[in-house]
Amino acid sequence: MENEPFPILPPTFSGNSRSVDVGNVFDWLRQGWATFIVNPGTWIAMMVITIVIFIGLAIVPLIGQLAAHLLTPVLAAGMLVACRKVASEETLEIADLFAGFQRNTGPLMMLGVLYMIGMLLVSLLVLALAGGGLAGGLMMGSPVGASIAVGGFLVGAMLWLALSVPIAMAIWFAPALVLFNDMPPVDALKASFNACLRNIVAFLVFGLIVMVLCFFAALPVGLGFLVLGPVLAGAIYASYRDIFAAA
Q1: In terms of CB atoms within 10 Å, which of 66, 160, 177, 182 comes out highest?
Q2: Domain boundaries in the chain?
Q3: Residue by residue, what is the 3-state secondary structure of the chain?
Q4: Tens-place pLDDT, residues 124-133
């Protein structure tokens, strides 16, 4: 019998997740708020930079939107690193936002590529299936045409929602799993999807609460997102720690 090599490597993280109670959603949000109030000035500065980046990308037609999807996991990883530093009582820095460009950058960028491709396919499919009705209704220039156009828009919106939700489930925990657990991108997407599916009721409740919070955050000219963004980042980190036993 051969001796095992020393040092003995720890077992590879499997990505196994656990089911949690719906009430844990409120604990995630409370932890998100607690993460924010530790250093609100730095968090707000990070959110301002993030918003400026995405607004700048939005100015560029098509390519900018694709680039935004590409960068989303990388910037999300930076926010998660910041959350972990707060949880470990380390000093939070604005530069933490770009931690994803310094650690596991390749896998995080691959997550962005897969996310970008997924959202692009959803957009093309919605355009192919519902765009014709919308355009045709508008071209008719009559009340009947307007009704057709509205119907086409509603069908497109519902179709986009139905197709984008599974992608959101797959990407939800993927940056954390790639960054903190060194999971390959595809495995991280599968583990994230399975975790969300196992806790589908909790995430439905979380999603409804976030929709309400987004409504109120948008009222003061969108300034509420400077606070809501970090709170949600902290809540996502808390949910990751809660659902993945080896996190």
Answers
A1: 177
A2: 24-243
A3: CCCCCCCCCCCCCCCCECCCCCCHHHHHHHHHHHHHHHCHHHHHHHHHHHHHHHHHHHHCCCHHHHHHHHHHHHHHHHHHHHHHHHHCCCCCCHHHHHHHHCCCHHHHHHHHHHHHHHHHHHHHHHHHHHHHHHHHHHHHCCHHHHHHHHHHHHHHHHHHHHHHHHHHHHHHCHHHHHHHHCCCHHHHHHHHHHHHHHCHHHHHHHHHHHHHHHHHHHCCCCCCHHHHHHHHHHHHHHHHHHHECCC
A4: 887 776 655 5
